[in-house]
């Protein structure tokens, strides 16, 4: 409008004029002059009508008189010149509010001049992107990120020839064929198709090459087919690409030649989570502007090429989670040869196979984040690390680093925020009155040697969010100041020390975070005091806590997911306030002395998956409210004094059960056939009760037991992840199962998915062993001993090829021993003693190799290894064979078998593990 203002004074005048003009315009706008074009208002109202607006994002939109000017509606902007709507930007108010739902009305097409359409984070519930969006021909910005659209990406978008910014990321989209339509978008500067399935678009890399204006491309998790090397010859492309994200595809090293072909001005490249193999290619060395390179989570091998040392712009080098190897000292020497030393701020080398001691890194003067955890590093830590005064994160966990770290090591490292030294045989010798130069947020020192005294220097660290000093040899009481240290704790791990004393009232010590607390395996004693009411998980197991657990009722519960109070001296009734714990997934109260009934309110644990009350003194019948715990996968009520019949609802309602143990209680009555509905059941233990009647014929309905291997790892590993402002930490636990035999325990964790057992011993079961049991070919243990079972051993027993234990002893089984038994090649324990079996023990080495005691107490049985020969054999058998067998049936052996009768005791429990990944999953 006013151009060529040469003198400063004129320019000032112009400014004044402008200000007046703007003021005027503002006043005009305030008075009721309507700019909105009627036709567009109608179209927008139609558009609104097809949306569901639960949080009132569009409350300013309406036909009412006072709302007439649609240019003032939320999320809209009109052109100041033409009054046409040019921008429509409808974001949810915040992350907690309901997004817009519904459909997008074609009335939108009436907004001829629309340049900017942003519907990101709304929810179109799996409907396809309407093709007519391709007719909004003036669009420059189209942002549909995270809008829950599903279906094909409409090629009609290729008609939006002025588009500069296209974001379809984080939806459920796929491409039906080639991406030719994209190449019409020649002004495109930004393209994001994250999480779209482009498996059918093998031309993706050629099409990208035609987008000459493209600066940013993100194709994370797109099932991209690999670049076909030959087709690169015809490709004469060059884009303006600066930022390239191709992570989480199955790309191979055929991508390398494409990179320099496509752009020479890369600033950031992310090829993480692919299948890059072999050594790191040279092609990166000519990318002189490169600031961020991520190649993590691939299968790269070899060392780190020397040229990186000369990449003067490089700020972040992320090579974590590969198979890179070599002496770290040589590698650092190579990287120190040029200007990289000055530029590099973040070096991620964790989870590789680097060896040797940690060398001098003092030259890297800008380094802020150093990740070397989970390698094969040994030897000592070079003193230079303690002089990297910009260093904020030092992550050296999970190596074999040795030596003594004293306070002088830390003297110059005042910016440190995270110190990860866990799982190294390091000794920390820090004097009692040491005042560290830093304020740490994360301290992870698990399994280093710190004790015997509780580290006093922690008293100066009042910003701590995560403290892990588990298994550090502390044998002390916790000083009072400790509990007032930080109100930001999100995780506190003091497990596996010998910490003594009582806990103070912790209900209000941890601020507003949702802390997780693990103080398991110590010598804590006394009552459990009130704990933080917003706790997210609590592991107090393996201590000497006593008294009741009424403290639980003061926890608000909404975040509580994990409670382990097992193996203490706790007693009294179980509290009856479980309805607050609707997030609880794991509850372990085993090995205590709780008594009384199991409270009805436990039925409110609607998300509970693992519940163990094993080895207490609980009594009464099971409340039918339990049927609501339909997520249960593991239920162990063994070793209590529960009684009544086995409820039918167990089979009807707990359909996710994998492990069910009612062992060693006083249950009576029949096994309800409804139990057969538990198709996922792998372990059923009803032994040591008073259960009578016949074994139901429907056990072949335990589908999981009828399969030799589990298709899924049915036993779950639970992960708890703590996110802080600058870290991610994982806490994991896993269901585990112990099989105890003759005092030695075998533990099944990751292999637990393969453990399948049926234990019905020591009851009053009668009738024949149903043939259907012989279909449970996945069984590892079958124990039917000490019942009144009759009939013959089915020859089909040879089908149970996975069997390791077989105990049919002390029943009234008759007939011969089927020779098919010898097909059970993995059988290590068998007991057929004290039945009425008869005839000859089949002459197959497998069956003869068992101790004769396993056949004892069957007077009609004959042949090796028993001393009594079979009648038809008497002449054939040489006299020497039976030598020394005369005392086979002594009372001593009988005792032996009585203990053997208890041979399998299932102990269900939990494995807990805790490890930091130093947060690199999220950051780079
Ligand atoms: C249009 O006018 C508004 C004030 O009414 C102003 O904020 C905006 O910058 C103007 N837009 C253009 C493109 O001039
Ligand atoms: C669209 O809205 C989202 C969410 O607020 C915002 O992050 C994004 O930058 C916007 N997109 C465009 C192209 O302006
Ligand atoms: C839009 O694109 C489709 C297919 O890409 C084409 O058939 C159609 O003619 C185009 N429509 C307009 C209005 O350009
Ligand atoms: C990569 O390939 C494997 C099998 O080779 C497949 O299971 C996986 O889904 C693929 N991942 C991606 C991101 O394409
Ligand atoms: C480190 O490990 C290597 C290879 O296992 C071994 O040869 C070397 O002696 C170890 N060094 C130290 C200091 O333990
Ligand atoms: C066997 O399992 C099926 C499905 O899991 C169930 O519908 C049926 O009732 C079961 N049979 C018995 C006898 O429980
Ligand atoms: C059978 O077991 C008993 C008791 O363990 C033992 O004393 C005996 O030696 C065993 N016999 C053979 C042949 O292994």
TrEMBL record:
Pfam families for the chain: LRR_1, LRRNT_2
Tell me the protein family, please.
Belongs to the RLP family.
Q: Which residues cross the membrane?
A: 900-922
Query: Where is this protein found?
Result: Cell membrane
Per the UniProt record, the source organism is Citrus clementina
* GO CC annotations on file: plasma membrane
Q: Which stretch is the leader sequence?
A: 1-31
Q: Any idea which UniProt keywords this protein has?
A: Cell membrane, Glycoprotein, Leucine-rich repeat, Membrane, Receptor, Repeat, Signal, Transmembrane, Transmembrane helix
Principal subcellular localisation of the protein: membrane
Q: Which residues form a coiled coil?
A: none
Question: Could you tell me which residue ranges the Leucine-rich repeat-containing N-terminal plant-type domain spans?
Answer: 38-79
What is the name of this protein? Answer: Leucine-rich repeat-containing N-terminal plant-type domain-containing protein
Per the record, membrane topology reads: Single-pass type I membrane protein
**Source lineage:** Eukaryota, Viridiplantae, Streptophyta, Embryophyta, Tracheophyta
Q: Which SUPFAM superfamilies match?
A: L domain-like (SSF52058)
